[in-house]
Amino acid sequence: MVPLRFYRHLIPRLCAAARSPFSPAPAAAAAACAPRPIRSLPSLAMAAYGTGVSADRRLLFRQLFEKESSTYTYLLADIADPEKPAVLIDPVDRTVDRDLNLIKELGLKLIYAMNTHVHADHITGTGLIKTKLPGAKSVISKASGAKADRSVEHGEKIYFGNLFLEVRATPGHTAGCVTYVTGDSDDQPSPRMAFTGDALIIRGCGRTDFQGGSSDELYQSVHSQIFTLPKDTLLYPAHDYKGFTVTTVEEEAAYNARLTKDKETFKTIMENLNLSYPKMIDVAVPANLVCGIQDPPSKV
Length: 300
Ligand SMILES: [Fe+2]
What we know:
The structure is a single chain. The chain is α/β, with parallel strands linked by helices and 300 residues long. It has one domain: 4-Layer Sandwich (Metallo-beta-lactamase, Chain A), CATH 3.60.15.10. Helices cover 23% and strands 21% of the residues. It is built from 8 helices and 13 strands. The protein is globular and about 50 Å long. The termini are far apart. Fe (ii) ion binds next to loops.
């Protein structure tokens, strides 16, 4: 039998669920959350992964998946704000209808469709979203050179209601890559969450051999902008090819197969990956540089 202590990290999220208006039996669920003696914790089990409404009842969070490019799209909303303002990070053109339908079902108001970088393996959904939801604005880094309604730089805050994402420049996979990180004050989600794009994927990282990539820069970016976040920060990548969904700073600093090495070893690894030319790059990059609108709609 598995000792109870291995499930201890789930308890705060279960308590949050017990307070949810969707919970069918609040009294029973609350009873299950009563304090119980817990002796010790495994050192790497500090951060809980959860979807749904966070403990402070303000953040709604969904992790969505596009299977052809193995891309994650993230939906975040401030549901304590009367307008329920929301952002989508890294939407994919093929799944825009799914995403917008979910947003509608949940009663959210999408204000930003954001990209962590100019993707080479799929076409962003931001262009399509803007044609279907004219009020939504696209966001990407200024350094990417791509067209968007809002071009952001390192240190900027992107607000949705009372919640915000901080922009951290993490170049190296591409010259314009950024990581979006939730705030660090008491009224922001805890633990913090970082949406790393392809700068860091679970136990690995994005390639650095095209689109202004640099292994030297990527190493510096991850170590200075991601590994310096609190250990329990939840890291959400733009892709996963093995079935993983989330990791933490502590886990990656201990187990990332590439980024735990010294810089010179990391550079040697990246120079010898011998990856094939991305099959979508010649279509995806030009489209993504103009917000995913390949052929602007005619005025007819
Ligand atoms: Fe990428």
